[in-house]
Design brief:
about 400 residues, alpha+beta, BirA Bifunctional Protein, domain 2, Rossmann fold, nine-stranded mixed sheet, five-stranded mixed sheet, 23 strands, RNA-binding
Length: about 400
RNA sequence: CGGAGCGUAGUAUAGUGGUAGUAUAUAUGCUUUGGGAGCAUAAGGUCCGAGUUCGAUUCUCGGCGCUCCGACCA
């Protein structure tokens, strides 16, 4: 991508009335644009990152054996009423001018249960799992913290169907494993945290919490083992001994990036979703639902990976693998050639071909936060300067070596 | 939903009851090229409505919007 062709531009000023770090950096660097409180456009640069996150999520869902599908955002009132969730605070309600009321989907247990009725009849049809990547709408009383709490946001929601609790438990643990892999790939340390189910279930659930002062949740956790509990559960307190290993428990703010719920038969009862077991008895399907928020994760990544001069994207989600910067007119042809060679190797590269001062190029490059920077100028004498975004070490290497580094680094 | 603050060019900011200023971004020209370059010229603005006033961007009221704290919530 030629930087001169980028749709967005970098602003020299931070946006006013934005205090959250992720929105300040993402808006200023041209990744997103706020339309309204909690409502964001993902600009080309930002969409690249969002897609990278989504791709990781999809790969792990597919690995689980779940199938991708897509459900509507426009959900008729009747569906919500069957589960008594029409009058929920977060529901956006709208009327058709020709009759009929709808709620914008903020979760899809209702829709998926209704669909499943058409395909699940027998124990032989179980288990099944489907997921979607979809825009969700929640009428938040107070959207805040940039991408961390929006009224419209992207979510991956997975729904599973089982013959009994035991099979649900088995799958629940598989999903936790898949989520762990996702966060590992995204370079995020997420703690599996015991929590309450809110509007979804009365049982305890698990949340994936990323330690960060920008988060809204407070968790009590153990630094030595995996123990972690949302403070809303109030079983453990900071300073007390960890029930699992005896170490002193700690308290921290955290960003809830994903959650898993054992729904049991709440929705299958409401929608009369049943199957025949081996003896011919009719039983309600046992369900689970599992969410993960790619747009929120994008915000969380910025909260965690940044410095005073900008964002530092982990390689797995960076909008580009490398940022090629040409510093002088005389080296422009050389830069252009390297850019073309790298493109032929399918390296995702952002090439700053603009005729502006070196200082501005460096400053903007730092802000965008691509992992690897390549600099060509008269001073590099035919070679290329290579520098990691998060390091000050500069290496001078040949073009061939650059191509080798970038081609081998791809997955 | 309770509380607080704020709305002035694309962005960020001054200021004023009487022709609205600066920076930056933009356009043009010249110069310049290793950490947000220089000079010149140009174009561009008071959130909406009502009230007070000879006159409101400024004061008053209402609306809309944004941010922050709290409650709530992925």
């Amino acid at each position: 991508m030629l930087q001169s062709g980028l749709f967005s531009k970098i602003s020299k000023e931070f946006p006013k009335d934005e205090e959250s770090l992720n929105s300040r950096l993402l808006i200023r660097a041209g990744f997103v644009k706020k339309l309204s409180a909690g409502v964001y456009s993902f600009l080309p640069l930002g969409l690249r990152v969002l897609h990278k996150i989504v791709d990781v999520v999809k790969e792990e869902m597919n690995e689980l054996g779940a199938e991708e599908m897509l459900m509507p955002s426009l959900v008729p009132k009747a569906a919500w009423e069957r589960s008594n969730r029409w009058n929920v605070d977060v529901a956006y309600k709208l009327n058709s001018q020709f009759g009929g009321e709808f709620g914008l989907g903020w979760t899809h247990e209702e829709v998926v249960s209704d669909i499943a009725k058409n395909f699940i009849f027998s124990y032989q049809d179980l288990p099944k799992a489907v997921y979607q990547i979809q825009t969700k709408f929640r009428d938040e009383k107070r959207p805040k913290s940039g991408l961390l709490r929006g009224r419209e946001f992207l979510m991956k929601d997975l729904y599973s169907f089982h013959a009994d609790e035991a099979d649900l438990n088995r799958y629940y643990n598989l999903v936790i494993g898949a989520y762990k892999k996702i966060f590992k790939r995204l370079n995020l340390e997420a703690r599996v945290t015991e929590a309450l189910g809110g509007a979804f279930t009365k049982e305890y659930t698990h949340e994936f919490q990323i330690l960060s002062g920008a988060g809204e949740d407070t968790i009590i956790y153990c630094a030595k083992c995996d123990f972690s509990q949302n403070s809303e559960v109030v079983k453990a307190r900071a300073g007390e001994k960890c029930p699992d290993c005896g170490n002193a428990l700690k308290k921290s703010r955290a960003i809830e990036a994903a959650n898993v719920f054992k729904l049991g038969t709440k929705y299958s009862d409401a929608f009369d979703l049943k199957f025949k077991d081996k003896s011919g008895n009719s039983k309600p399907v046992v369900m689970g639902s599992y969410g993960i928020g790619p747009s929120r994760i994008m915000g969380a990544l910025v909260e965690i990976y940044h410095d005073e001069s900008g964002i530092i994207w982990p390689e797995a989600v960076a909008p580009f693998q490398a940022h090629l910067i040409n510093l002088s007119q005389k080296s422009k042809v050389k830069s252009q050639k390297l850019y073309q060679k790298l493109q032929k190797q399918n390296v995702e590269i952002l090439y700053d071909d603009r005729d502006i001062s070196p200082g501005q190029k460096f400053a903007e490059s730092d802000l965008i936060g691509v992992p690897l920077r390549l600099v060509i100028s008269e001073k590099t004498a035919g070679k290329v300067e290579v520098k990691q975004r998060n390091s000050d070490k500069i290496k001078l290497v040949t073009e061939k070596e650059v191509i080798k580094i970038l081609s081998s680094g791809k997955g």
